[in-house]
Design brief:
single chain; 422 residues; alpha/beta; Rossmann fold; Dihydrodipicolinate Reductase, domain 2; Alpha-Beta Plaits; 3 domains; eleven-stranded mixed sheet; six-stranded parallel sheet; 17 strands; elongated
Length: 422
């Protein structure tokens, strides 16, 4: 069998893993690898440094390379490189969630025109196979909801906060020291990473193109040790959830934010850096995928699977037709104010008679029913910690109530508002 030449753009953690795993496949030849710094020492035994280049356009313009593998991340120069590769008739494997979320529509449209395929299993949940199962085994299902834990850094932080009862700031420093969190962790802890991933996952699962700019995003920086403790006492764990669902009017509800997940929901058991995706549809019902969401070898595993899938079909007139993008409909996306949820509200109030009744009255005026109200002790300054769980309510009504509560003379502070998963 003739060897299939591939070009690799990026030789960081994931790129290094790809080189290591491809050594076992004699029909695949890494012809060229693009790196940023040619003089950097690489921890890859037996690496042929003669195939390294600091000009990635040498790869996308090489007529002998059939598959371009991109693992550098970001939108530029990745978009221009992959656009050039597609125009030159090359198949693409990418792990770039930000690029797919922001420029994917353009790339997929061009790929269809040029009769090449773009595969991206590694861009959603690291080593967990999700995209290919949705496109193949689950293709006959009407999937109405996808919800998941798509970021290992935030899941690690929330797990450690629960296990050790310590603050977000303390755990973040520990995560940075261990290499689980970046020096600038905002991409993870502010929910950007999860938003990029759910944008693409939602598009595939719901069969409607989702706009990243219309996804509500909220991170975990406001979650306190008290929130974790109160949630656990009430039968919940707090997780950063990326979700996408279709309502009864076929509108897409796509968002990323912390949620109180009940102990009865399997997602509540996903801890540390593990990722998980839960799908609900007909006829399959509920199905969950869980495993390592990042790391050298897990992510390389997904990249490898995509490479091998293309190689096995590379001589076909149309390579992997089931994996092509065929979205003709742009999703009608709900604004967060239009969504309906249960809510956890943590309040610091004066420890005075009638304050709980005052909270109930304000919520009632905004058409909000309370499921439970708990006073969690009093502090030395004669304030009370009050936790409220609401029944299902419109987000706009909740925000109105929060505004009125903040303006009430008996309310010292609204500590947090967190949505509750059913």
């Amino acid at each position: 069998m003739d060897k299939i030449n591939i070009g690799l753009i990026g030789l960081g953690t994931v790129g290094g893993g790809v080189v290591k795993v491809l050594r076992d496949f004699k029909n695949i030849n890494i012809k060229r690898i693009a790196v940023k710094n040619l003089s950097k020492k690489r921890n890859i035994e037996g690496l042929d440094e003669s195939i390294l280049t600091d000009n990635p356009f040498e790869i996308v313009n090489d007529k002998d390379i059939k598959i371009v593998v991109e693992v550098i991340g970001g939108t530029e120069p990745a978009f221009e490189l992959l656009k050039t590769a597609v125009n030159n008739g090359k198949h693409i494997v990418t792990a770039n969630k930000e690029l797919l979320a922001k420029r994917g529509e353009e790339l997929f449209k061009l790929a269809n025109e040029k009769n090449v395929v773009i595969l991206y299993e590694a861009a959603i949940a690291g080593g967990i196979p999700v995209i290919m199962p949705i496109k193949t085994t689950l293709a006959g299902n009407n999937i109405r909801k996808a919800a998941g834990i798509l970021n290992g850094t935030t899941n690690y932080i929330l797990t450690k906060m629960e296990e050790e009862g310590i603050s977000y700031e303390t755990v973040l420093k520990e995560a940075q020291a261990l290499g689980y969190a970046e020096t600038d962790p905002s991409g993870d802890v502010e929910g950007f990473d999860s938003a990029y991933k759910i944008a693409t996952l939602a598009t595939i699962a719901l069969k409607q193109r989702v706009d990243i700019n219309k996804i509500y995003r909220e991170g975990i920086t406001n979650i306190s040790a008290n929130d974790i403790r109160f949630a656990k006492e009430l039968g919940y764990r707090i997780k950063l959830i990326a979700m996408a669902a279709l309502d009864d009017n076929n509108k897409a509800d796509v968002r990323v934010h912390p949620m109180l997940v009940p102990f009865s929901n399997t997602l509540s058991t996903i801890n540390n850096v593990t990722n998980a995706v839960l799908l609900e549809g007909f006829p399959v019902g509920k199905v969950m995928f869980a495993g390592p969401g990042a790391g050298e070898m897990p992510t390389a595993s997904s990249v490898l699977g995509d490479i091998l899938a293309i190689c096995a079909n590379i001589d076909a007139p149309v390579v992997l037709p089931m994996m092509r993008c065929n979205h003709a409909v742009n999703a009608d996306q709900l604004d967060i104010s239009e969504t309906v949820n249960k809510y956890y509200i943590s309040i610091t109030a004066e420890n005075t008679p009638g304050v709980i009744g005052c909270i109930g009255e304000i919520c009632g005026k905004s058409d909000i029913n309370l499921s439970s109200v708990l006073q969690k002790g009093t502090d030395a300054d004669n304030t009370a910690q009050i936790v409220v769980i609401t029944e299902k309510s419109l987000e706009a009504n909740i925000q109105n109530a929060i505004t009125e509560l903040k303006n009430n003379r008996h309310i010292v502070k609204i500590n947090n508002l967190i949505r509750v998963m059913e």
